[in-house]
Amino acid sequence: MVRRIVNRTLLKEPVLDVEVANLRERGMLGIAIAKQNNATNQKTTKTFVFLYYIEAKQDGSDAKNGDPPLGNRLYRYELMDGNLKNGKLLLDIPAERSALHNGGKILIGPDSNVYLVVGDLAHRTRLQNYEKKFNPQRNKRSISPYTGWQTC
After folding, report:
1. For 88-125, how does the pLDDT look when each residue is reduced to its tens digit (9 = 90+)?
2. Per-domain residue ranges for the chain?
3. pTM of the full structure
C-alpha cells in the first residue's frame, strides 16, 4: 500500500494498493519521484512515481502460505488526480527462495536514468549485483540522458 503525505498530513486513502510479498526482508522496498516537463509547454509536467517491490499473488502470501513471490519488480506509475495510475513494468528480476538482502534504494540520477540497488539477493558470492541501466521514458537500456526530467 502506498500512501501520500500532503502538508505534513498523511492522507486517509492510499494512492495505490498492490500485492506485496513481506516475509523477512521482502516488501515495498523503494520509491522515487520524477517530473517530466512537456517539450512544447514547460508549465505542463507529468509526475511519475517509481516503485520497487517484491510482488506476490496475494498480499503476504509468501509469509502466510509459503507461496513463492512473483518477482522483484520495478514499476513506473503516473500520479494523476491524487492516485497512481497507468502502471508499467520496467524491470522484472526473478524472485529468489531466500527472503534476504533484497535492497531497494531507487534514485533518478542527474543523467535522468533510474538507478536501483537490488542487493545481492541472498547470494554471498555474487556481490556484484544485477546491473542494468535504462531510460525511464523509453524503458530501454540507454547511456544517453533524456532531457526534461527533474528529481523530486
Report:
1. 998 887 776 666 666 778 888 887 788 887 766 666 66
2. 15-151
3. 0.73
